[in-house]
Structures are given as structure tokens and as C-alpha cells.
Task: inverse folding
């Protein structure tokens, strides 16, 4: 949940041991361990469409998908301000 406090070390461990390896295995990203960095992989475009859809619909998607993501929060606010 994005609105809960995050233990940064627990998040790092979860990313390092669970999420990033799965994304890398599927060629969506590549990642390095020191420092912990991730980059777009050869199949990133396959998941980019999901991110694009979220950004296009930031004003209408549920709060739990927006709150905690600075970019989506800003895009939602920008759309509200333009009305």
C-alpha cells in the first residue's frame, strides 16, 4: 500500500530478491546490485503500455493506484487544474 510507511531496507531486500529478478527474467528490465539500479530491458515496451494507460487515466483510476506515486499525483492534479 503506497500510503503506509515504508521500511527502506525491507523494500530493498524485497526488490532485490523478488521483484527485480522476475522482471529481469522476463527481459522487462536489467538490474545491477551495487549500486542497486534498474534499466529498461529488451521487452520493456510490452509493459510500458500499462504505465502509459495509468498516466492517461490518472484522473479516473482509484486513489490507491495514484497516492504515493508523485508523478501520477501531479498528473491528476494537473488534469483537475485544467478543468
Result:
Amino acid at each position: 500500500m503506497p500510503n503506509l510507511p515504508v521500511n527502506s531496507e525491507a523494500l530493498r531486500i524485497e526488490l532485490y530478491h523478488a521483484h527485480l529478478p522476475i522482471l529481469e527474467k522476463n527481459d522487462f528490465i536489467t538490474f545491477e546490485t551495487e549500486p542497486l539500479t534498474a534499466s529498461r530491458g529488451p521487452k520493456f515496451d510490452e509493459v510500458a503500455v500499462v504505465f502509459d494507460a495509468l498516466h492517461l487515466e490518472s484522473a479516473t483510476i482509484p486513489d490507491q493506484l495514484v497516492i504515493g506515486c508523485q508523478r501520477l499525483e501531479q498528473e491528476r492534479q494537473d488534469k483537475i487544474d485544467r478543468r
